[in-house]
Amino acid sequence: MLERLLVGETISLDLVNTEWIDHGDKVDFLAADGAPELWFREYGFDPAEEDADALRTSRTAIRSLLEAAGPEADARMNDVLSHGYESIRVAGGRPATTPTVDSGWGAAWRAARAFTELVATHPDRIRQCAHPDCVLYFYDTSRNGSRRWHSMETCGARTKSARHYRRHVTDEKAKQRR
């Protein structure tokens, strides 16, 4: 079983992050045997009631909005969102929201719906990792909103190391020219 690179994000970004690049090759966690079922269970869904193709469709819709928002991306997301709706009722004097979702679309719809809430409330905190070869997204929870990498230990360290190397090589070449 593949091990995912970034977990613990919101359900929508965690879904998007089931695709990543490893040594130049695209990796699709959801294509691995048993992976969709594992993902469904992690989020409290019954794998027997969920459709992995719907989950992939939702992932594509969310990624489309992250990478190239526009009419086509909107249409993809609206297609996913059309598989469910929320009803608001009052119980005990408090509003309660109840989703009604097409069969097999529970997890896919919930991830898409969660993404719309994230975009509505904190769009400036949704970021793609700043490493040029990384396709992972994260929700920036840092106090000042300055987080740049999905992981300081991996992409952050690689970026800083490359910058140090370039600076060192440039300094050495300058010294050789003198």
From TrEMBL:
<dbReference type="Pfam" id="PF11706">
    <property type="entry name" value="zf-CGNR"/>
</dbReference>
<feature type="domain" description="Zinc finger CGNR">
    <location>
        <begin position="125"/>
        <end position="168"/>
    </location>
</feature>
<dbReference type="InterPro" id="IPR021005">
    <property type="entry name" value="Znf_CGNR"/>
</dbReference>
<dbReference type="InterPro" id="IPR023286">
    <property type="entry name" value="ABATE_dom_sf"/>
</dbReference>
<protein>
    <submittedName>
        <fullName>RNA-binding Zn ribbon-like protein</fullName>
    </submittedName>
</protein>
<dbReference type="Pfam" id="PF07336">
    <property type="entry name" value="ABATE"/>
</dbReference>
<dbReference type="InterPro" id="IPR010852">
    <property type="entry name" value="ABATE"/>
</dbReference>
